[in-house]
Fold this protein.
Amino acid sequence: MTGEAAAVKLLTEDGKRLDGRALNELRRCRIEAGVLKNADGSAYIELGRNKIIVAVYGPKEVHPRHEALPDRMLLRCRYSMLPFSVAEERKSPAPTRREVEISKVIREALEPAIFLEEFPRTSVDVFIEVIEADGSTRVASITAAAVALADAGIPMRDLVAGVSIGKIEGKLAIDLSGIEDQHGEGDMPIAMMPRLGEVTLMQADGRFTREEIVQALQMAREAILKLYEEQKRALKERYSKVPPVEPGEEV
Amino acid sequence: MSERIYTVVPAPRREAIRSMIKRGERVDGRKPEEYREVKIEVGVAGNADGSARVTLGHTKVIAGVKASLGQPFPDAPNAGVQVVHAELIPLASPIFEPGPPDENDVELARIIDRGLRSAPALKLEELVVVPGKQVWRVFIDMYPIDHDGNFIDASGLAAMGALLSARIPKLSTAPDGTIVKSEEKTPLPIADVPVFVTIAKIGDALVMDPCYEEELVMDARITFALTKENHVCAVQKGGRGSFTLDEIQLALDMALSVAPRLRAILDTVQQKVNASAAKPT
Amino acid sequence: MPLYVSSGQVVVPGEPVAEGSYEVHGPCVVVGKKFYAKVLSVAIVEKSRQVRLIPLKRTYIPNEGDLVIGKVIDIGPTFWLVDINSPFTALLQVSEVFPRPAPAQRELTEIFRVGDLIAAKVLSFDFAHDPLLTVKESKLGRITKGLLVEVAPARVSRVIGRKGQVANYLSEALGVELIVGRNGRVVVIGKKPDDETLAAYVVTRLCEKLYVEDPFEEAKKLVEAAKRRWSS
């Protein structure tokens, strides 16, 4: 975020962003559910140029056994970027500290939504692989992971969706791209349970006033509700190919 | 550190703590918005360029700063390097096991790093010696040595205390072009003094500066790093629970209310260090 | 509007289903008078203000008394570990194999080997302990012939039907013996391999659709279709 700051102009004269978006515009988002055969649940998301695939395995037996929790399901998350996913030099396949932290905050973003107490002494593993990265990958991963968990039949109180709010030339903007994250003045990834309206992930770097934080949360809520519609569409479409009855028919 | 052992709090104790909080009482007698007593001592590790030990209630964290000359990062050739590292070592608590850094060590280090970097604390552009070739690399290592909760705030104070009290050699260029370190010392270039404030959510209650037992029963926590001008320069939500939008605002206001007190403690450190530097030797 | 879904609609976890005077069956969460789906399901609206939520995927969780088909995966000093297609590996103790204490010289591997398929009954299960199996009743024990069909545990009960109606019908109509495990495994045993293949086909198709109103009618349709297909 710091470094060669302000050298790159992120807004044009008419207030548009480099990719033509308005400040409060989300990138094109497309989600597909049930894309993998082996996983119990899976999802693929494209958010702008981001491409991320998520696989969910579980509920299943915990390995190693001693890690099993006596009263609930163990949720494990692994966020990983493929070496060729980044715009810069090849990323080493070894887990970086950034990936370790992101894996943790993603897990903590999904946990509140899952009825973990229903399957004690089991585990559910979420594997996130970033195929192409262009800013806001952790929140896009959460949006896809929630779809994969639902696809796997995991009991949840709500889905979870995420968006990043950033600061570009002093103004708040929705859904930062890679270049905006690198050269902007702040990045605030936020994830929420859409129907319940509760925040499950929130981080920030940069500088924000108290009022900006309040405004950013509102902007995030609106964007997350839009992503929620796409999540529902993806899940419903996955199973629409095998209609059990004619829609609307009473039996 | 590695492998935090899953600590099961007996249900009766968990219930007791939660119902006490509903009545506005905490296990250690504090009120929900009450922050524990903070003490800081600098210069505790003689070989470090700067060091500090912070006591927050019973939590103790020691931080050390070591600066050395080296190459800048390729994508930031005109800036010094800041590296923040933390480890939760077995010394601090029976629940910590030895091993490589795990997600808790990494998260702690990265929260402090983000807060320091965004404030910014260190003026990295003033740590350049030969542009593109040689810069000061500042390593900040934080080690909790006693666990009673809220390592984030305590580590942040310790890191800032170590940075404020650090002294690095003044540099000069010899006739043959080599960089020479003199005996004379100078402080690190520091722009802002961020403080970290953590609020825990237990049931529907928000409590400031959670102690260890409260951390075991809390649903979630949120940390704000605040600059001198009360701007938020880092945020981190942690834990397996969630916050409503209102709760986040309330927590932020709680943090803003206690930040001046924490900064005042760091200010006295800065004054003391400046005073002793000004004393004739 | 107390009903938020239409029949045949897929609902996602957390989505509101109905409110007030409606009765909702299936995995759901009730908050006040409002029902929300808990897992990805299909909503079927039935007469008299009933909504049934049918989960699209369900993990098999053992229940006492369930007949299951297991695969032996390991042998311990006095027990076998059995995979029953569940997050929980089941235990079959030596004492649950013989009606009276076994002769001491008997090697466990002579009874069941790793890889063997067994029909067993779930003796007990709670989340604190591994499921315990028994093969002491008749018709339980090692399965030595037939074809194994794996189907969705959520839908395997169709193969049994009301009071075994469907299973009996399939047996007669296809000339096979059926062992139906509640854990989504079915073994079909016939005199000829062709009979087994036909039966496997019918069982698989029967469990494919997300919702079948009348499994018995569906089974009859499938058997007729299969017989036509195979005889041509």
Observations:
- The first helix of chain C runs from residue 108 to 111.
- The mean pLDDT of chain C is 89.
